[in-house]
Design a protein that fits this description.
Strand content: 25-35%
Helix content: 10-25%
Oligomer: single chain
Number of strands: 29
CATH topology of the largest domain: Alkaline Phosphatase, subunit A
Shape: globular
CATH class of the largest domain: Alpha Beta
Number of domains: 2
Number of helices: 14
Length: 613
């Protein structure tokens, strides 16, 4: 018996040791061509070039959204920002009369109900550390509430010195090195999210002087320091003897900032790709992605297969030996684990939904890439642009007029995908001012900035436009769900009425399920902190059919909705079903089916009441 126990302990210890460590380094607003290994001639990055030579360098890697917070949310959850209803940066951009449309209310933080890659890996025995930028919520929604054992934010902006850059990168690196020392036994997951090279940035005069011939000498210096810091983490992994057991990933949250947004910018250009951060054109979506995985990924592999950063969550979970079928809710990415080992990756379309206006001049749109074809659908006027990326990577020639059948087919697929993830929609702006709109979006199209030899030349040309863009949203209120003030009614807290309906606590479910009788219903008692008008949102899943009619009763008011088939009962989508006016104080909300045409009414994970604008 003792021998059996000893053998079991040894086997478990071996299995633990065999699981790879994970280092994920995320840059902030780093453009796809900002590294010399991606072709940039005026910004040397020797350490990242070396990393690329030791693994795979993807040349068609895409972020989940061309702006920070939603991209990071997707990176943490493996879910599309459209499904999360977190589609713009936090705390969000307010509406203005210059907009033809109003934006939807988005999540003001990554909800705690969402399960992150850190939570999943921690459950599997990984030590989890977050160092650097989070940008997914403040108090109550920090990394420690989302699966990280350790977090250190550092400072987003610092004064350059002999020992520090302008983005606190050396301080973050020192804390990462210490954390790696402490967790060398593994397995561990280190998420090092640099603030580099996000504006504002600065450099010592002598550093900028070394890069005097660069597009932006100060920016090139900032990139140099980031590269050195990545090199230090690479060296630490080697010093600890962990190279062969560590997956090392470097990427960026979105494309580079190509517009004037702050004195001393634009930061970079994304040539030959169009536009940058804040846009669904290639310059905003494409990011550098380097993966080193010794023994699995062949060295010096340059791959042009389209992948998206939502793929990293299922990839890392499979690499850690976890069963993807048992994970919580849908994962919109696919695992690249077998592909990285030399296997095939089936072709698939990639989708984006961005129902927001951006500080960079972007307007509400959706996009889709299928093979060599890219469709961008604009919501202001319904116009669709079609590009053949194999022949026109700069997206300069719109082929929509010549390929009407293809446009119709792709628009149909894009609309079906939006419905499948519960994507939010825009609405006409009752305060729309056509003259202001023309000044910002028609007379000047910031997606077409490019061709200037220096950042200074772009800055001089676009100063007036920048001032008008800033003025447009001056004093406007961000359109996000507040961290405090919304009411979240979770499945686990429901009072169940009936014979079959029950709460299913399994991690992959966490839902009200077995709703096979229309007579069964659920309710919640809660205190409403403040009187007012509240939008009501349900997080529902269903099989292929759907069709059940359901009423939601609260405060003497009734809202009705029809359950949408989502393909799987744990494939949840968020849906705003209407608004109610409620007094402060004790309330009861009830969800009561009126019909059940299929096998079950639905699965219901939560109901949210959020203050309406």
């Amino acid at each position: 018996m003792l021998r059996f126990i000893f053998t079991l302990i040894l086997s478990l210890s071996f299995a633990r040791a065999e699981r790879p460590n994970i280092v994920l380094i995320l840059a902030d607003d780093l453009g796809v061509n900002d590294l010399s290994c991606y072709g940039r001639k005026d910004q040397p990055t020797p350490n990242l070039d070396k990393l690329g030579s030791e693994g795979v360098r993807f040349t068609s890697a895409y972020c989940a959204q061309p702006i920070c917070s939603p991209s990071r949310a997707a990176l943490m959850t493996g879910k599309s920002p459209a499904r999360l209803h977190l589609t713009n940066f936090l705390p969000g951009r307010g509406d203005s009369p210059a907009q033809r449309l109003t934006q939807p209310i988005i999540e003001g933080q990554l909800p705690l109900e969402e399960v992150t890659v850190a939570e999943r890996l921690r459950e599997a025995g990984y030590a989890t550390g977050h160092i650097g930028k989070w940008h997914l919520g403040n108090k109550g929604f920090s990394p420690t509430e989302q699966g990280f054992d350790f977090t250190y934010a550092g400072k987003a902006n610092t004064k350059p010195s002999a020992t520090e850059g302008s983005k606190g990168e050396y301080d973050l690196t020192a804390h990462a090195e210490q954390w790696l020392d402490e967790h060398r036994a593994g397995p561990f997951f280190l998420y090092l999210a640099h603030n580099t090279p996000h504006i504002p940035f600065a450099a010592l005069d002598e550093d900028a002087a070394r890069h005097r011939d660069a597009f932006h000498p100060v920016y090139a210096s900032v990139i140099e320091h980031m590269d050195r810091c990545v090199g230090r983490i690479m060296a630490k992994i080697d010093t600890l003897g962990l190279r062969e057991r560590t997956i090392f990933i470097f990427t960026s949250d979105n494309g580079g900032l190509h517009v004037l947004e702050f004195p001393g910018t634009p930061a970079t250009h994304n040539t030959p790709f169009r536009a940058g951060k804040g846009y669904l054109y290639e310059g905003g979506l494409r990011v550098p992605l380097i993966v080193r995985w010794p023994g699995t990924v062949k060295p010096a592999w340059v791959n042009d297969t389209p992948v998206v950063l939502t793929d990293l969550v299922p990839t890392l979970l499979e690499a850690a030996g976890m069963d993807l079928a048992k994970q919580v809710g849908p994962l919109d990415g696919v695992s690249l684990a077998k592909f990285l080992a030399g296997g095939a990756l089936p072709a698939r379309p990639l989708f984006w939904h961005f129902p927001n206006y951006t500080n960079q001049g972007g307007r509400p749109a959706s996009a889709m890439r299928e093979g060599e074809w890219k469709l961008v659908e604009h919501f202001e006027d319904g116009k669709a642009e079609l590009f053949n990326l194999a022949k026109d990577v700069s997206e300069t020639t719109d082929l929509a007029g010549k390929e009407s059948a293809r446009v119709a087919e792709m628009k149909g697929k894009l609309a079906a995908w939006r419905a499948s993830v519960g994507a939010q929609e825009t609405k006409p702006n009752p305060a729309f001012n056509a003259a202001k709109h023309r000044t910002l979006y028609v007379d000047r199209d910031s997606s077409k900035i490019g061709g200037a030899a220096t950042a200074g030349a772009v800055e001089r040309e676009w100063t007036d436009w920048r001032a008008a863009m800033n003025e447009a949203v001056k004093g406007s209120r961000a359109i996000v769900t507040p961290a405090q003030g919304d009411v979240r009614l979770l499945a686990k807290d429901a009072q169940v009425h009936g014979e079959k309906l029950r709460y299913e606590p399994q991690p992959q479910k966490n839902t009200l399920g077995f709703w096979t009788r229309a007579e069964d219903w659920a309710s919640w008692d809660f205190d409403l902190p403040k009187a007012g008008r509240y939008e009501v949102e349900v997080l529902q899943g269903c099989g292929n059919a759907g069709g059940a009619e359901v009423v939601v009763e609260v405060g003497g008011q009734t809202l009705r909705f029809t359950v949408i088939g989502t393909g799987h009962f744990q494939n949840f989508i968020q849906r705003t079903i209407g608004a109610v006016d409620l007094p402060a104080g004790k309330q009861t909300l009830a969800v009561k089916p009126q019909s059940k045409p299929g096998n079950a009414v639905m699965d219901l994970r939560r109901v949210v009441l959020r203050p309406a604008p």
